[in-house]
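Just wondering, does anyone understand these tokens?
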Amino acid sequence: MADTVIDWAAVEAACAALGNDGAWKKPDLAVICGSGLSGLAEDFDEVRSVGYASVDLLGESTVKGHDSRIFLGTHTGDSGKQATVLFFQGRRHYYEGQGFAPIAFPPAFANWLGCNRLLITAAAGSLSQEFIGYRGIARIVDHIDLFFPNPLVGPPPHNRDRFIATADKYNGSLGMQVAAAIENEGVCLREGVYAAVTGPNYESGAVARMLSGHADFVGMSTVPEALIASALGFDFAGVVSVTNESGMSDNEHGEIKEVAVDIMPSLKNVIARVADRIVAGE
């Protein structure tokens, strides 16, 4: 397993190496696209696009359903103003074995470009009775961190405070804008607590039962990025695609793609609407 302590100087150097070519512009919003959700950028006009492989610190995802591209695009919404959104089309996971540096790079690069809003998306398995049988979008309102180790172990980024607060972080301005945009889609707003585990194995039945009394869905990502986003001072929000029931013996990665296809139009509209509200100053 690669070093678990993030070398923030190396991350900053990688951000500068990519960003100093003059082709990038400050994003109004950054989006990390979870499993099967790389298509969220399709309705945006390309400004700049590079493959993850061209960034040594990032590297291509080794997991199906992640396109491994950084895409900067623009979209003009109902306000008549142009919004710029930075998409990370696919995520790197800790269980892939390259440590936390590839996970830290997306929020760090967005921050380097001057962006301070981050939407984290992910696939998740249902836990609580409210979500059993449900397949669709849900907003994260809080998390349970069962992810070991912690990406913030070691020196803090940019000499910031090491001891950051994490309470109510998903419910800031961006979280409220995402909630309103989901409701505007005519989709029932479902909200819940996300439990993060390291993976890559799916949860056993006993683990799922243990978590079900405290969390609504579970996944193998999101919380490391949320912690890093907190450390970097982002206003961030989280949305999951609930794709399967946790703790079942027949869980398959292919279920993720099927649900992603169904929710893609609504989630695209949510992102466009949120970006438009940001540039409109709402």
